[in-house]
Amino acid sequence: MNQLLKFFSKEDYFARHCGIELLDAGPGWAKAQMPIQDFHLNGAKTVHGGAIFSLADFTFAVAANSSGRLALAINATTQFISSARQGVLYATAEELSAKRQLGNYQVKITDDQRNLIAMFQGTAFRKDEVLFDH
Amino acid sequence: MNQLLKFFSKEDYFARHCGIELLDAGPGWAKAQMPIQDFHLNGAKTVHGGAIFSLADFTFAVAANSSGRLALAINATTQFISSARQGVLYATAEELSAKRQLGNYQVKITDDQRNLIAMFQGTAFRKDEVLFDH
Amino acid sequence: MNQLLKFFSKEDYFARHCGIELLDAGPGWAKAQMPIQDFHLNGAKTVHGGAIFSLADFTFAVAANSSGRLALAINATTQFISSARQGVLYATAEELSAKRQLGNYQVKITDDQRNLIAMFQGTAFRKDEVLFDH
Amino acid sequence: MNQLLKFFSKEDYFARHCGIELLDAGPGWAKAQMPIQDFHLNGAKTVHGGAIFSLADFTFAVAANSSGRLALAINATTQFISSARQGVLYATAEELSAKRQLGNYQVKITDDQRNLIAMFQGTAFRKDEVLFDH
């Protein structure tokens, strides 16, 4: 899993641009965090849906690619439940199903008071290419 | 609409952080663009789903808030259709329905070759507060 | 909860038409089953997505209406994970969040071998009217 | 297209059970209707979300299978916009994208007053098997 962590921490430029940090990952799961900064805010001065989604989508991608085979997101749904303004957001991705080509994942986004901020469901399509060599 | 454009161009910090530019907007619709930069890329070196979503979500927010009453996203679904690597991404949001408290919107994301990159559907919940004064 | 069970078992004509049976319910949750019959099948002779959705949507509705205040589905997403051909399908709905007007729910659909058939996420909008008197 | 129409009208038992009628179809599109009957109603005496979804999902399936290769729904999202109580519901499915294995579709549900009742987005996964012989 070391290589997975290294790959996503270094090669995912957008996650870095958003201040997203990969905490841990294993077969079919991943955890990440995003300390809230001013650039995450929208016009209402709460964390932008795009920032919340990016945290969820990144964590989903790590979980979906944990086998090393390239998996692409084909579909994602987010329920935005509570607003967040400060502190740290956490994402936990888990695998609901994994077939040869399709995988389904769920990501829970919480704040540091354990409030549920958003729920994310994603479907990934696995290609034959490898994302990185083991 | 001038004030809507000014408000979202200035006050949405995350959109600015992502290099998203509001092009135009009117009652129930909006258009925006995002010139692809290196920081938009994921590990596979295509535009990150989070960046595509952020462009769509921003454009949806402008359309949903075009009346000046604060509208929050409660739900969003994205179908990721084609990868994008370079050039400019465009988003066009249109209103499917607008009731007193709920509104439904659709956003089409295309690249500068007119390829369909993603389709986004969002539901907004309107509050009684105003987002900005007219 | 007795009244909730009676109301939904009797008054939801479509659920009855689909052979859906409410098993149990409480504040924010519900369980139902659907013994697979020939009329549930699609052209590929597996259970129709519409039948699976109807089972999930019914169970979601019972959970969302468990307080007695009328709640309407405004959004639902389903990930279809495995096909089902025979036996009994089970649905379990749980509440992810409940605010004054909006509630988020998740429904898991399994078969009698405990295979995960589908995952459903729904958002409900609560009206001031009551669905039935306590 | 004749065979497609015949196949889905005859072999989709659940669509028949729901009173869904296929009107027309071609490469990547389909139209169907569902005259509202008492058995379509939910506890609030409006058309059940499951019945609306079934109409949309059926029309999506016809459009996605119009090439004759077996396509399965892997994901579907529905925005429920207005309630329906009587008359006829119409569904129109169109293809947003079609790749070797994945296709994206959108279905619009309207009533006979042209009110928008629901919007449906579905993703289909194409198998190598044929659904029926040409």
CATH C-level class of chain A is Alpha Beta
Q: How would a textbook summarize the main sheet of chain A?
A: 6 strands, antiparallel
How confident overall, as mean pLDDT of chain A?
A: 94
Q: Classify the helix fraction of chain A into a percent range.
A: 10-25%
Largest interface: A-B, 42 and 42 residues
Just name the CATH architecture of chain A: Roll
Q: CATH topology of chain A, which one?
A: Thiol Ester Dehydrase, Chain A
3D shape of chain A: globular
Order of helices and strands of chain A: HHEEHEEEE
Query: Between the first and last Cα atoms of chain A, what is the distance in angstroms?
Result: 9 Å
Task: List segments of chain A where confidence is low: pLDDT < 50 over at least 5 consecutive residues.
Answer: none
Strand content of chain A: over 45%
How large is the count of helical segments of chain A? 3
Structural class of chain A: alpha+beta
What oligomeric arrangement do these chains adopt?
homotetramer
- Give me the CATH superfamily of chain A: Hotdog Thioesterase
Count of DSSP strands of chain A: 6
Number of domains of chain A: 1
Notes on the protein architecture:
4 copies of one chain form a homotetramer. With 134 residues, the first copy, chain A, is an alpha+beta fold. Chain A has one domain (2-130): Hotdog Thioesterase (Thiol Ester Dehydrase, Chain A, Roll). Chain A contains 3 helices and 6 strands. Chain A has helices at 2-11, 13-17, 49-64, and strands at residues 21-26, 29-35, 69-80, 88-98, 102-111, 116-130. Chain A is globular, with a radius of gyration of 14 Å. The N and C termini of chain A lie close together (9 Å). Strand 3 of chain A pairs antiparallel with strand 3 of chain B.
